[in-house]
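ingest -> validate -> predict -> emit
validate: passed (alphabet ok, no gaps, 279 aa)
predict: started
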Amino acid sequence: MRKLVLFDVDGTLVNAGGAGKRALNRAIIDFGGIKDVCNFFELQGETDRVNFENAFYFSFKRKPTLKEYEKIKSLYLKYLPAEVDYSVKNNLYFEIEGVRKLLEELSKIDDIILGVGTGNIEEGAFIKLKPSGLASYFKLGSFGEKYRERYKVLKEAQRKAEKILKESINENNVYVIGDTEKDVLAARINSYHCGIVLDGFGNKEKVLRSGAEIIEKNFKNTDIWLIWLGIKKDPKGIKRGTYICPDTPIEHSYFGKTGRGRYLSQKEMKEIESILKKK
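emit:
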């Protein structure tokens, strides 16, 4: 049974230390726009296409023409490598903890196909990933060049994987890993599984309300992610890859209060255990 596992880039694989934001700000200034335009809208979880259009709109109060859009993209790509280098030199660039180990484990499994599903334009994604070398783990990628909606980016990744494998992939065998509530929404629209890391750029409160199946601080505990993916057996004997509802008293308590069936992070489990012991 083949499984497609899609990773977002920013805040999920790496944190580029604000390189993309700085590059887009510089691009808009070169275009004659306002300074620090990216402070006027939310970049996180959107496709680059939307972010470029928003940056132009907040400077010029109208949508860019196709020619103007292409110029912004060109300027962005002109400045992005230098901004990534700046982040690296100033220790602002880092991999999300544990992600390399997880990718190494997954890359050894024949039935797993690893892909990138990101809002970045393709060139921008590889520029951001270059210092880490993580791009070598992925067999395919789908990017935010053509689409404004993230769910369409993910759907394209599924189609690419099916073309590579020469077989169809059931939506239940597609797993999306990101860092914002928008990753969850995009996955759920396509009926995919979705897991979230909190060490990214997402708003924690929004993420916790998103209904993600698994929420962890990072990838440090590889086993939790492998259990969620249905690769490693859960010590409780539950087939987590097809997780539907809570299966422990603590998770039932959480589900009863929130209506959300998802895995709790280790920190949340400890917090709830502490509350229950006090009662």
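The domain at 17-89 is CATH 1.10.150 (DNA polymerase; domain 1).
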